[in-house]
Structure formats: C-alpha cells, structure tokens
Amino acid sequence: MSAQASHPGPHHPARDFAQALNGVLLHSGVRTALHWLEQAQEWILEEQIRLTEIPAPTFHEGRRARAVRNLLRTLGWEAKLDAAGNVVAEQSGARPEVVLVSAHLDTIFPAGTVIRVRAEGSRLYGPGIADNGAGLAALLALARALHEARLNPQKTIVLAANVAEEGEGNLRGMQALLQRYRERLAAVIVLDGPGEAGVTTSAVASRRLEIAFAGPGGHSWGDFGIPNPIHALGRAIARISALPLPQAPRSALSVTRVEGGCAINSIPARAALKVDIRSEQEAEALRLEQQVRLIAARCVQEELQRARPDSPLLEVQVRLLGARPGGRLSADAPLLEALQAVDRWLGIETVYESGSTDANLPLSLGIPAVALGAGGRGGAIHTPEEWYDAAGRERALQRILLLTLLQAGLEG
Fold it and tell me: Which residues are registered as beta bridge partners of 162?
C-alpha cells in the first residue's frame, strides 16, 4: 500500500520528454493502441474477474500463473514460467536494454479461501479483486495493446506476473527477475492495485519478525507457577504497542498475528507473535527492530522473576521473516520526467506516494523504478470485502502504455 508524500519538482530536466511524447503520439500504431484501451474495457474486466477467482496465496500462485501464461500466449507473446514461478514474456528490441513491467500474482488470503466475485452496481467485490486483480488486468491489457498495434520497441519490453510480493514472500519473485535482468535494466514499472494519479517513488523499508516464547508447558492447576509463554507474550505486545514512533521519518509498528495454547486448562509450551515494522528510512526500521528484540528479552526475565523458585527456564527466539530495503527515485530521474510529460498530456495531476511494493528492490539498487496504480478505484484492501470500480480505468491504462513506450522507444 502507498501513502501520499511530498515530492519536489525537477530542477535540471534531463531531456525534453514532451517532445519525445509528441513523437510517440504521431505513430499510427500508438494511436491504435490508445484507442483499443478505450474500447476494450469489457474484455479487460472479464479477465480481471477470471484471474481473481483463481486462488493465489503467497507461495501457491501456480494455477494463476499458468492461466496468465496461457492467456499471454493467445495474445501472441512467448510467455514462460521461470524457476521462481514468475510468468515472463519478452518482446525483443534492437538495443540490449530492458524495460520491465510487472504485476504481482499473489494475494494475502490463505489457501482454502473461496473467491467468488460479485457485482453490486458499478463495484465488484471479492478478495484480491483490486490487489492485485487490477494490476494483473492492466498487465494483460498492455500486452494485448502492444500486440494489436504491432508496435516494435527499440529496447526489449519484458512483461512479468511475479510471485511472492505479499506477506512473507519477501519479494522473492522480483528478486529472481532482478537476478536475470539487472545488468540490462533501463527502468522498472510496477503495477500494483487501483488508482490513477499516484506514483510511488519512495520505497518504505520494512522488517518482519516472529517472536516465539517457549517453556515446558503443563497443567494450569498442578503446574501453576511455572513460566507461561502467553503471559510473556502479553507483556511484549503491550510494550511493543507503546513504543514511541517518530513523526519524521514516518514509521509504523504493528503486532499482526498471535498464536499459542491448545486447551483452556493447559499452560502452553509455546506462544508466538509476528511484528511488522515499517519506516521511510531504513535506519529507523532497524532501530525499531532492536527495540523490539530488547523488549522480548526483558519480558522473558520478568516472567522468570514471577515464577516459582524451582521453575524451568523460559526461552525466546526472534526470527527475521523478511526485510524490504528502502530507496527513493530522484526527483530529476528521466523515468519520472517521462511520467510527468505523460500525465500533463492526459490531464492527470501527478500524486507522489511512499509505499512498500516490488519497486523497493530496484530502487534500493539504484535502478529507476516506480509503482503505478492500474486505474479505477478500490477499497477494503486485504479484507474479504475488498472492492473495485473500473470506471475511468482507460486513462490509467493509457498512462502505463505511454510511459512504457517512452522508456522503450519505438522503431520507425
């Protein structure tokens, strides 16, 4: 998800992208592609619904990946699955550089979640219909528009539907794509969720932890007085939630999952919690992680002090589940200047945002990258009542097409 952030305008334009955009718009194939995006909303929506109804929990995206691969093949792309499970399709250009456009396949909803998209007025409801059903639909719309218009890029365009963006996926899919294309990447454009005007240029760093308290366990009466992992866990939650957070850089710290215990009359042998730490500055995220680790150790000592003298030990293990690096796109980056030129032509007022997306990785490596909304509106993201309204989506799709073509260039 993204949050609005201030972004200064460029002081030293790298090149005249308005002129370059005018040249692109003179191409008859580009006009054909723009027109197709205006007329194809029914097809795009049908594919969005079809893909959303194929479950794709993180680490279990295979069925949806195969569906995307097969559809790309019917659209004229030589799409394949790579070793990580990503769907990858290339349109080769004469130059060696690569423009990567990606949308993540996975959702936060666990295996067994029944997904049936329903319509109420102009809104579609269903888990994952916006995040990232909208992004996948935009990727497919781009693929078909490029093919229908017979556009030949100067640089290679790579379309990727990647795995493991959500939850504990730790951006594994994007990592694989960067390993494959890193030396050739000219730009990365990530399509994530709904929205028209937003552009994520600031990558929020995150640290995900599991804190597990472990003891011998026992009977709630006969063994009362031995260390109780859930008691230690409860103190930890209270202290973690009370940690002061800075206003700048903007930061967030949330306990997001708790587990432990097997019966009401049993002292558990294990209890665990998961923590999500985020900050606009990576150093602050690391500082908060150290505070959380200290709290966990302190809560063990407090529980042992309260236990009876002959008690066995209580232990704690803190495990790093995932880390997303931070990064920021320069205000005068050519990629951003190209987007600004496109937005002016389309009449979009660019909104600069910070967020945690697949763009984190390339930005952390100094590779030009942005994350864009795929059009329309959405809400209740990451809940069973997630919704999406496609009204006006075509302008965001045209934005994605034109930015891609400005980065890749066109033959002829």
Answer: 104
